[in-house]
From TrEMBL:
InterPro entries: HATPase_C_sf (IPR036890), HATPase_dom (IPR003594), Sensor_HK_TwoCompSys (IPR050482), Sig_transdc_His_kin_sub3_dim/P (IPR011712)
Gene3D superfamilies (UniProt xref): 1.20.5.1930, Histidine kinase-like ATPase, C-terminal domain (3.30.565.10)
Species of provenance: Actinoplanes regularis
Lineage: Bacteria, Bacillati, Actinomycetota, Actinomycetes, Micromonosporales
Regions that span the bilayer: 61-94, 106-124, 130-151
UniProt-recorded name of the protein: histidine kinase
Listed CDD domains: HATPase_UhpB-NarQ-NarX-like (cd16917)
Signal peptide: none
């Protein structure tokens, strides 16, 4: 057998078993000299002790075999009449290993069989304690079995926790992708719908005026598809796509052009300068906030005008989007505000949205650092 191919744990168990064999042989000799055994320790006794110890070399790979060999060696050792000694500690170690590494039911059956052999010896051998010795004999098996089972449960719980963590990360990533697709597709479709309505309105009376709206539809759809392609490529870790549109606030110019094509004039005001390069997550979130808010203006604002204010602060960035209130449903009555809030709060930011001074205003603040 090549122990190297079984890995570090197998080599460690082999070294441990060899060390235990030497220690158990020496300890058994000392116990024989100090005790009052019916039979003095001889070559057979030493052989049983050494075999019981060496069986622990495969305690992880074949734990039930280890327990069977160690248990039978201990039973034979005691049946001959040798003095109690380290071989009982080897039995405890074998019981622990079986319950820790083998199928639970099989391990408990084997541990019960070993306990039965020890109890039979307790009541059938000459000069043995009988009933007063039941508790310590049972403890030799029950205590290591309990320790092994407890560690097994803890390992299973830790593994389950890791699985749940991975599952949660997958769910979070799916939600993030869904939010990205919602923002991209929702904005693109809203712009296309507005432009299509304009084209239909002028098509019969003045067909020539429909062409700019159709060209705007073409641009909006192409830009939305490029942005969607970029987002999906990022989830596959694809780099170097020359068609990737700007992400983050660097894409504001294209966003404002699309809004203008759809008939919404956006007045952009910027206060301050970013002291450092914005973290990628904050930069993208700020862009998505502006995109979703302006999309809501396009859907519900009805006034054809919006204000976008970006304020750079020492420890964060604030984005405010407002538009005149109209008789149409207020901006954000759908899932847009909820998705925006989830995105922002995940980064430790705050969102407020609602009427203010005859305008509907969305105000978002994003911190530059990680949320505490």
């Amino acid at each position: 057998m090549s122990w190297a191919r079984f890995g570090q744990p197998a080599r460690a168990d082999l070294a441990l078993a060899t060390l235990l064999a030497v220690a158990a042989a020496v300890g058994s000799g000392v116990a024989a000299r100090l005790g009052h055994a019916a039979v003095p320790l001889d070559r057979t006794g030493y052989t049983l002790v050494i075999v019981a110890a060496l069986a622990l070399a495969v305690r992880r790979r074949w734990p039930l075999v280890t327990l069977a060999v160690t248990g039978l060696c201990a039973a034979g050792y005691l049946a001959v009449g040798y003095a109690y000694g380290p071989i009982l500690l080897l039995v405890m170690f074998a019981v622990y290993s079986a319950v820790r590494h083998a199928p639970t039911r099989a391990a408990l059956w084997c541990a019960g069989a070993v306990l039965s052999l020890l109890l039979i010896h307790l009541f059938t051998s000459d000069g043995r304690p009988g009933w007063p010795g039941v508790v310590p004999v049972v403890a030799w098996v029950v205590v290591p079995a309990s320790v092994g089972y407890g560690l097994r449960l803890r390992q299973a719980a830790a593994q389950q926790a890791r699985v749940e963590t991975i599952r949660q990360r997958v769910d979070d990533e799916r939600l993030r992708i869904a939010q990205e697709v919602h923002d991209i597709v929702g904005h693109g479709l809203a712009a296309i719908k507005m432009q299509a309505d304009i084209a239909l309105h002028v098509l019969d009376r003045n067909p020539g005026h429909a062409r700019p709206a159709l060209e705007a539809i073409s641009r909006s759809s192409r830009q939305a598809l490029d942005e969607l392609r970029s987002t999906l490529a990022a989830t596959r870790r694809v780099d170097g796509d020359e068609h990737n549109p700007p992400t983050g606030l660097g894409g504001l110019d294209q966003l404002l052009r699309r809004m203008a094509d759809a008939g919404v004039r956006v007045d952009l005001r910027t206060h301050g300068e970013p002291g450092t390069l914005l973290p990628a997550a904050v930069d993208l979130a700020a862009y998505r906030v502006a995109q979703e808010s302006l999309t809501n203006v396009l859907r519900h604002g009805g006034g054809g005008q919006a204000d976008l204010t970006i304020r750079y602060e020492p420890d964060g960035i604030a984005i405010t989007v407002s538009n005149p209130l109209t008789g149409t449903p207020a901006a954000g009555t759908g899932s847009g505000i909820a998705g925006m809030r989830a995105r922002v709060e995940a980064l430790g930011g705050q969102v407020t949205a609602g009427p203010r001074d005859e305008r509907f205003e969305v105000h978002v603040r994003l911190p530059l650092g990680d949320p505490a």
